[in-house]
Amino acid sequence: MPLATSREVLLKARAEGYAVGAFNLNNMEMAQAIVQAATELNSPVIVQASQGAIKYAGLEMITAMARVLADGAPVPVVLHLDHGTDYKQNVKCLRAGFTSLMFDGHDLPLEQNIAMTANIVDIAHSVGLPVEAEIGSVLTIENLLTDAEMAEIRALEIPKQFEILRKKIGRTVEEHIAKPEEAKRFVDETGVDFLAAAVGSVHGLWLDIWPLRIDRLKEIFEATQIPIVSHGSSGVLIDQSHAIEKGVELLPGEGSLKDAIKVGYTKINVATALSMEFNRAMLEAAGKRPGEKDPRKLLGPARDAVVAKTKEYIRLFESDGKGGSPAASGSTGSLGGGTVARGEE
Ligand code: G3H
Ligand code: ZN
Fold first, then answer.
1. Least packed by Cβ within 10 Å: which of 36, 39, 62, 118?
2. Would you say the CB of residue 311 lies under 6 angstroms from ligand 1?
3. Mean pLDDT, residues 242-270 taken together
4. Is the shortest distance between the CB of 232 and ligand 1 below 6 Å?
């Protein structure tokens, strides 16, 4: 089916109490894997491209890949711009055929963030496209810790990792959480469709250990009444029942990704976890086949691994079975994977 807009899939998801995964693609294999996972689970899905991915693959290539994949899929597929940091990038994506935009003005003063977001909402709405924008700041781990600090932390047992992370970055993350009254004003004055409200997550974290401020998320959703977007989801604690084994001591008001879906999270962005899984499987295949000359023998297993990881997230978000296509359930997808016969090379 043709590319859907994020408005179509997210309003339905919010009304029915589940969330939709927004998975970052970096190359053709990841794009195929994401749509295959959604097809196999009969789930709507958002494929999203960061400015870095657009620079790497080219805007036309990204748009064409998403369009071809959506056309061949029996479930709704959305193409979203992730963290567009200026007006021009948003306009270029709108013209290219993206069906969902984002303006990320989190590092601007509030007044300017409101003015820029309102401009982009104006042009996007004039052609029926929805817009996401950010309030508060979802920080990035690479900007909070040095490479050496991260390597040191990652060598420790998981509970120790959490303890040190909390000590080193906890206060800074807390200071950047969005405020409900500002969020309400932002939504009222911009007309934005979805809100990337910072509620304690951090881009690029690992091991599903980081708790969210569920109390703040609830207040923001109640004040704004629009779907809230989760950024930095790869490192977030998935379920409160995992807290003890991971050494996560939940403070008052804190909770997990599952808790967050119940109180407003509707679009859940996942990038780091899929990229790491892609690299892990590709390197594993390379290790097993030293001297391999066919890149497909390394990229194929990486693609399969991303299908499996994406399916885990789709089940967690409970969007499986919500693709609106009974025929899609049990489908094996349509990738050209498998063994390459001699002569087809
Ligand atoms: O915009 C993309 C996301 O916020 C992804 O964050 O890399 O921590 O999963 P992540
Ligand atoms: Zn993000």
1. 118
2. no
3. 97
4. yes
231 lines ligand 1 (CB under 6 A): yes
Neighbours of ion ligand 2 (CB under 5 A): 231
- What is the Å distance from ligand 2's center to 151 Cα? 22
Over residues 293-302, the mean pLDDT reads 98
pLDDT higher than threshold 60 for residue 338:
no
Domain map (residue ranges) of the chain: 6-317
**At residue 249, what is the residue type?**
E
- Dihedral angle, C-alpha 315, 265, 303, 38, nearest 10 °: 50
What secondary structure, in 3-state letters, does 169-193 show?
HHHHHHHCCCCHHHHHHHHHHHCCC
Alpha-carbon gap, residue 241 to 220, rounded angstroms: 25
Q: pLDDT at residue 343 above 50? A: no
Of all protein residues, the one whose alpha carbon is nearest to atom 10 of ligand 1 is 232
Residue with tokens 């479930």: 75
pTM recorded for the entire structure? 0.94
pLDDT one-digit tens code per residue, 143-189: 999 999 999 999 999 999 999 999 999 999 999 999 999 999 999 99
Per the document, the length of the chain is 345
From 80, 143, 272, give the residue whose CB has the most ligand 1 atoms within 8 Å, as the site to mutate. 272
Q: Who has greater pLDDT, 340 or 4?
A: 4
DSSP letters along 258-272, please?
HHHHHTTEEEEEE-H
Atom from ligand 1 closest to the CA of residue 273? 9
First-to-last C-alpha distance (Å) of the chain: 30
The answer to whether 2 touches 71, Cβ cutoff 8 Å, is: yes
Q: What is the pLDDT of residue 328?
A: 54
